[in-house]
Amino acid sequence: MQLSAIALGVFVLLVTTRAIFSYLSIRNVQYADQLVGQHRDWLESTLGIDDSDELRDYHRLTTAIDELESWIGLVAVVVIIYSGGLSWGVDIVATISRSVVLQGVVFFVGLAVAAQLASIPFSLVSTFGVEEIFGFNNQTPTLFIRDTLVQLGLSVGFVAILSGAVLTAIERLPTLWPAAAWGLFVVVSLVMQILYPRVIAPLFNDFEPVADGELRESVEAVFERAGFETSDIYTMDASRRSTQLNAYFIGFGRTKRVVLFDTLVEKMERAELQSVLAHELAHWKEAHIWKQFAAGAIQMAVVVAALGWLVDFEPLYAAFGIPASATYAGLLLAVLIVSPLLQVTAPLSNALSLKHEREADAYAAEVMGPQPMIDALGRLAGENLANPFPHPWYATFHYSHPPIPERIRLLQERATDGDATDPTPQPPATGDD
């Protein structure tokens, strides 16, 4: 089949973008391997990693699996849309109903189910292969199946509702639907800040308010130092699935909450845990959630504007042999075209997140002192086998948090105030290739 210029352009865009990011992943692995070998002593003294080969092996394997999944997914998409599979899918759903909206809902739900099923083999390899080998996995096959079914149900529900709403807007507001879709994004984003902690997350984990005792006293001490009234702090039974450590802040108003993984509570010293809590409180104090929300809304305004133009671009439909009335197929093609552009512009959104994380680290150092936060970062990176040495180019496009050595270096500067005689092991520089 001879490709039109538009179809060829889409193919080049998809493959080139994937190739560029695969190249960055390869460079990232090579770069990390080199620095890990050069800074074994720092890894052991600061991050508690006494087997740096384990760190490198974990990083290589997780990267390889991610790349394999990405390329198989891309090949599947290319084969489907360039072999006539997309037009065949349109013909199939057209037999279900005369309503384009209903056709589109069935179309997108089918894609969501197919994508979920296709990801299962990779999830199995990651969970019961890589994570098991490196001692992270606590998930049972029964829990894995349950999680998969719940995720599938949620995906079907959300995709059906959102695709139905957007396609209805396209049908009834042919010139204004991008504005309606943007408004829907804003509303859904706000609602999710309420629904996720109260409805969705409890489908997967149990959340318990921090009870009276030593932990509660530690939490209250941080709130008192930070000038806050003690609010919703929960522990989550993350150990049901993994031994890795984490914490997060979500929500606004009465729905806001800080969540501490039970693994974090178990493995961290109290001062370290308090510094992590102070870091999360900074996101609250500095209104980072709202700033990120505003930035996301601006980005989505640009995205839906681009989608609006592409959905109305009839040559795009002709290039892939689908009728112009099948706006849901046009919307899929538009998303495929816009997605690489979002990847390329990721440094813009990452820059804001990096700024917020540095502010949160500084706030934690102000509340608890720099050393507990340094120790907490070292423990988090060491326990999770996180790559501390990302390639600068890779980090630019993928990292929403500064690399661990940079974060530790900034905290040490606060601790020593430029004292060159400080004996603390200095983090290696990671900004040069």
UniProtKB/TrEMBL annotation:
Q: Which GO terms describe its biological process?
A: CAAX-box protein processing
Q: Which Pfam families match?
A: Peptidase_M48, Peptidase_M48_N
Q: Which CDD domains match?
A: M48A_Zmpste24p_like
* Span of domain CAAX prenyl protease 1 N-terminal: 51-205
Q: Which residues bind Zn(2+)?
A: H279, H283, E357
The family database entries (InterPro entries) matched by this protein are listed as: CAXX_Prtase_1 (IPR027057), Peptidase_M48 (IPR001915), Peptidase_M48_N (IPR032456)
The family database entries (PANTHER family) matched by this protein are listed as: CAAX PRENYL PROTEASE 1
Q: Where are the transmembrane segments?
A: 71-93, 105-129, 149-169, 176-196, 293-311, 318-342
Q: How is the cofactor bound?
A: Binds 1 zinc ion per subunit.
UniProt keyword annotations, A-Z: Hydrolase, Membrane, Metal-binding, Metalloprotease, Protease, Transmembrane, Transmembrane helix, Zinc
Q: Which species is this UniProt entry from?
A: Halonotius aquaticus
**Homology family:** Belongs to the peptidase M48 family.
Active site, per annotation: E280, D361
Single Gene Ontology MF annotation: metal ion binding
Q: Where is this region: Disordered?
A: 411-433
Domain Peptidase M48 intervals: 212-414
Q: From what superkingdom does this record's organism come?
A: Archaea
Composition bias (Pro residues) maps to 424-433
What's this protein's name? M48 family peptidase
Q: Reply yes or no: does the keyword Transmembrane apply.
A: yes
Name any cofactors this protein relies on. Answer: Zn(2+)
